[in-house]
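Person: Please work through this fold.
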Amino acid sequence: MTDLSIKKGTELTTESITPAELSAFRKGLLRWYDKHGRELPWRGTRDPYRIWVSEIILQQTQTVQGWDYYLRFVDRLPDVKSLAEVPEDELMLLWQGLGYYSRAHNMQHAARQIMEEHGGTFPREEQEVAALKGVGPYTTAAIMSIAYDYPLAVVDGNVYRVLSRYLASDTPIDTTPGQRYYRTMAALFLEEKQPGRYNQAMMDLGAMICTPKSPLCDACPLRYSCRSRETELIDLLPVKAHRTRVKERWIEYFLLLHQGQIAIRRRDSRRGIWKGLYELPSIVLEKKPTALPTPPDGWEIRETMPLPDHRLSHRLLHLRVHVCGTSGDANPNYPDGTEQIPLSDHGTIAFPKPLRHFLDHYSAGNRLL
């Protein structure tokens, strides 16, 4: 394995790249994009609202998964006003399964900002766009460049990967100096006359050619000037200085089922994972359980069903659902903070993805989870 430490001190600067190289990089990238760029439902629009929606959905979401969500979202919420006014439960149902639910809450907050501060018209100034809730530098650059041809370079995982490999740079992408360096280099390479088209080309190159594993170097329009081509660096770059520590948690859910009704409760919409979604009553453990949990008072466990582990960016969740019943026909006691709905109505309510999968299968009588 190549020792990246030997590359220290060889970092390229803006002065190291000649005007001729910059011109060739831009022309080669844009020619490739014209032939091979992805056809996506949000491409071709200059509507900043739709560009914003697509960019937020694609954060932490693969394009293939985000496609249908985007179409449903803009069909139901076609503009800033409709997003600002939609009930939270309906918004969560639209977002159900995408994860990172704070994105949806932030979007609604931002839509209300636009209604209050800009009269419902999407702002056109960089500082005003950047001031919207949940809109960071990347999303600001995407909106400003694609909607308004404003010369801002996007810097996301795709761009980090393309530039670090093209420049053979071992500067870590998850440090403040590293992020500053890549923003500077991204701005240098930007085609300022066509910033929106260039930014989309960079995103497509990273997604289609310069992929994290097994990049298609022979098909890359930058292959003849890429400093990492045909070296071990291709598989080692980009470099991260830190690793995300993944914590394990064990969640024991209780399906309290009585005369076709189940108990649910709403998660806090201000903090934690799955904000604002509904769930079954549960207990969360930091250590692997060695026995069945104690169900709520008046209930007894009739069946225990393990669910597939669910991985988040910083959590590994081990999940079980305990189907519980009561003795006799008397009205049972339900835990505080819960409400009861018919099991058959579960599809009208937004649940976290693992519970949605479980309830869909359980209510259909399919135990193969």
The chain has a mean pLDDT of 91. The beta strands are 247-258, 261-266, 278-279, 282-285, 300-306, 310-311, 315-325, 339-342. The two ends are 41 Å apart (CA to CA).
